[in-house]
Amino acid sequence: MRVVTSAIGSLAVLAFGCVAPGLGAGETWRAGFARAKITPAEPMWMAGYGSRTHPADGKLHDLWVKAMALEDVGGQRAVVLTSDLLGFPGGMSDAICAELKTRHGMERAQVMLSASHTHCGPVLRGALYDIYPLDDHQRALIDAYSASLEKTVVGTIGRAISDLRPASLAFGQGSCGFAANRRENKEGDVSGLRAAGQPTRGPSDHAVPILSVRDPGGRLLAIVFGYACHNTTLNEYSWCGDYAGFAQIGLEEKHPGAQAMFVAGCGADQNPMPRRTVELCQDHGRELAEAVERVLGNGIEPIAPRLRTAFEFITLDFERALGREDFVGAIAKGGYEARWGRRLLAEVESGRPLATSSRYPIQAWKLGEDRLWIALGGEVVVDYALKFKERFGPKTWVTGYANDVMAYIPSHRVWEEGRYEAGAFPVYGLPAQRWCPDIEERISATVVRLSR
Ligand SMILES: [Zn+2]
Question: CA-CA distance, 28 to 216, in Å (whole number)?
């Protein structure tokens, strides 16, 4: 993704929202909601897998963007946008946030753009182009769709802000077990392990954080819920939100009028297992929706109407600059690596310097007195969620795939172990093979600072 690797790597943005004043009788949150269908009308290329050979040819269900606007008793606002997409590229997030600043005066700290990471959504402008065999027609469709999507996202967030009305918020946490560490488990082994009552191998995060929003009469307005697992049950040619799409549909059928919104967790090294059939995808969606239902029924605690928001771009350096011989070697391998090598070799030969770092967005919100919501860019491995929950307590919600998805984000452990999630830079088009070895320390230090 060339758009995120230029000189803006040195840009740092830091913004804090104001602290709400003390509560008085009857002082509550205000919340507003809106949604828009984003299922492509054209047969576009689908995102996430390099193995597809033709564009989408149908849909299992529609794709959506859904917005929730929040306002605390002090007038401090924030908005969460969820989407049935692979991830927002940094350039699109920048364009959306610039428009939100112009129209609504919102800072980046106040806007969380998240994606479910479904692998059955459309390719977006500038994202992972090297892994897809795109022709000029497909590139034109992607450009047009992406421009339209930016407008739709801005408009949907605007409608959610216009919809602000008194509401109560509550937080709870359930559990759901279909995610398994894909670096440590063979897909064929997982059902046997579970049947024998054995845990799957390697770290996972089975928590299902839930934020419920109700009107003053107690009617459910929205359920925002998360899970740390790739939305990769399916690899086919029909538009679909994968298990997260089915979970949202199930919850909205159960609660007519409520908006269900899925936020992806730190599931970069987690896959739904077993997988690869529509029936399994529906099963996972049902299991996740049932986990949410159990918490809605029992175990959800109110959140005081106080909101603080913080955001910062940090710079993450690449481990080693690549040269001509690296790209020539990649070209010899064929496939997406050859497309990556050819593109970067052309840049080198034209005399353009290759990026040596990427900017990285980190966001932290505090809801009420003690609910910390951390939102990280990129495909974040599960270690980050587990460590931040250990550090900040079990009420912490850690989201990945937020505001920019530029690469995998390995922990130090995964970086040392190597393999796919430790780098995979050519998949994302970055001109390097992996991050600097202190990536985890850099991210953690910023999260700790923002959380204060
Ligand atoms: Zn992924």
Answer: 9
